[in-house]
Amino acid sequence: MSPHIISLPVSRRAIIQDAQGQPQLVKDLPIPPLVSGTVLIKPAAVALNPSDYKMGAAFPSAGAIIGYDFAGTIIAVADNDDTENTCDFAPGDWVCGGVRGSNPTAHEEGGFASYIRASSSLLLRIPRSSPVAKLSIEQASTLATGLATCTLAIWDPTGLNLLPATPETPAEVPLPVLVYGGSTATGNLAIQLLKLSGFDPIATCSPRNYDLVRGAGASAVFDYSHPDVAATIKEHTAGRLKHVIDCISDARSVALCYEAIARAGGRYVSLELVADELLAQRRAVHASFLLGFEITGKSSGLPGGYGKPADPAKVQLGLKLWPIYQRLLNAGKLKPHPVQRLEGGLEGIVEGLALLKSGSVSGKKLVAVLEE
Fold first, then answer.
1. Same structural domain for residues 279 and 155?
2. 103 to each of 59, 107, 147, how far by Cα in Å?
3. Per-residue pLDDT of the chain (372 residues; tens, 9 = 90+)
4. Cys staple from 246: which of 23, 128, 180, 280, with CB 3.0 to 4.6 Å?
5. DSSP β-bridge partners for residue 72
6. How far apart are CA 252 and CA 233, in angstroms?
């Protein structure tokens, strides 16, 4: 299989896990070979996610490249030898997407690297010249994992299961949906997608981020720290709330979300694993936990509650929604989260992960701009 290329490098630099799962920079990793359905990308920016430090701490896998989200230029496209892996991209295209970082079964897959191999099926073109979209490379790098997570949370049968409504076929009845943690990057996207899909998103966050969350489309915003927030949400929704996405997913958020859900029950999606005993407090609530990289349809290869079986249906769901996301981006209808820029290229990522872990980042997405 001979790739179509601009200039194929020999080696790459990357941030990998050490034996304790901590990030370290290495300078001479081999370039992974292209296989059918993949492209080689030179990233110009990469975005940081909490999972970038959480996975290494919980499941150290020495040598695994860290990082999920990126934006950059395609420099090589594999020659596809089957009809299922057709590629609509070419060298020189500017794209954004995601790969699975800290992958214990495929160390070469992470995104914090000077060159990235990625599947072409869930890439998005960056509308760089559009006067409507006005999307920078840094902003584009923040999208993929959030979109994957929202896709599964909103539309997968194990999530809120809100099909057939989508941004292009909106729901006729604007059901309320609570996004707990609306000022997170994923919460921001969830609010936008729910609003575009005809639902009535409401959210919690810190008062300092009210404007950000209202700007995303939330019809009502509540102070997560207020002692009566659950009762206030229940009153606001007249006891009709049946759908919740919990972007924080700790003991307090679970309790508040469960209290706000209607007496008849509903569906609750967490973006982090929480204790079974917390979820069992209301039998009428269908609770699920998801990982954004499940959109690949592959097994997680992780133990315990993080163990996720292969599920090809999740890939198909992504393939259904990704063209819609592309059209929304092109039309300027999908807005990225505010960016906090990190300097220093790959080296700056290590410091950025420490900053993210400290909990001091609020209402912003950390993005490292990579050097040439």
1. yes
2. 9, 6, 19
3. 455 556 678 899 999 999 999 999 999 999 999 999 999 999 999 999 999 999 999 999 999 999 999 999 999 999 875 555 567 899 999 999 999 999 999 999 999 999 999 999 999 999 987 777 789 999 999 999 999 999 999 999 999 999 999 999 999 999 999 999 999 999 999 999 999 999 999 999 999 999 999 999 999 999 999 999 999 999 999 999 999 999 999 999 999 999 999 999 999 999 999 999 999 999 999 999 999 999 999 999 999 999 999 999 999 999 999 999 999 999 999 999 999 999 899 999 999 999 999 999 999 999 999 975
4. 180
5. 43, 95
6. 15
Residue 223 main-chain phi, psi, to 5 deg:
-75, 115
- Beta strand 339-342 pairing with 365-369: parallel
Same-domain check for residues 138 and 189: no
Residues 158 and 289 in one domain: yes
User: Which domain range does residue 223 map to?
Assistant: 147-295
**Number of domains composing the chain:** 2
Residue 97 sits in the same domain as residue 178: no
Give a yes or no: residue 137 inside a domain: yes
